[in-house]
Amino acid sequence: MSSNTSRAKRATLQPLRAAGRQRVEELLAAASDLMAERGYEATTMAEIAARAGAKIGSLYRFFPNKEAVADALVQRHVTILEEEYAALAQRAATLSPEALGDVLIELLIALHPGVKSLSALMEARTDSMEIRERARGHAIAGIAAALRVCAPGLDEMLAKDIAAVVLNTMKALRSMLAKEAPTTPGAPDELRRMNRLYLSDRLEPFRNIGASAMDTKS
């Protein structure tokens, strides 16, 4: 059996000691930086180890392959996002669709430094695309939950469709602000306005449906 095959089958090692946990954090931080800069496919295990100032054997000790590194990053990002989206869902009931649009965009901008490789992972072209689908699925589910709190009559499938549109708008704005996409000085504000108008148009018809249904039953 080749070393690559045994690495592929070995599970990710969960360190018990503080020094090991610190090393894993350093390796994941290096991987996040590289994937954000270069993309998932272009990043190599050797580069991750070098960026973290670690030996390649140390990296393989904790992660059998790059897919395992990416999986750990997705889980790390998901934990951060779930906490933030849960807090957002609590606020969403008091927000107008326009205000929710602004909050969602500002949330992504604020969270980006901590989850900057998430976009790269969402665009990853892995054989199974499991990493990509997990990353996208959690982001869409979090946004959709907030949309449904703001507009209780919105059904789950439509909420996910709208959330996917909002997610891509958020990514486009982040790219504009980072000068990674063609833009002009006023374009980011225009995109924010487009997002507010879109959410107002799609959510307002469903804002009072839930309340009306409860009134009818009572």
UniProtKB/TrEMBL annotation:
DNA-binding region: 44-63
UniProt entry keywords in alphabetical sequence: DNA-binding, Transcription, Transcription regulation
PROSITE patterns linked: HTH_TETR_2 (PS50977)
InterPro entries, per database record: Homeodomain-like_sf, HTH-type_TetR-like_transc_reg, HTH_TetR
Sequence ranges assigned to domain HTH tetR-type in this UniProt record: 21-81
Record has Transcription regulation as a keyword: yes
UniProt key word DNA-binding: yes
Superkingdom of origin organism: Bacteria
UniProt cross-references to PANTHER family, sorted A to Z: HTH-TYPE TRANSCRIPTIONAL REGULATOR BETI, HTH-TYPE TRANSCRIPTIONAL REGULATOR RUTR
This protein's name: Transcriptional regulator
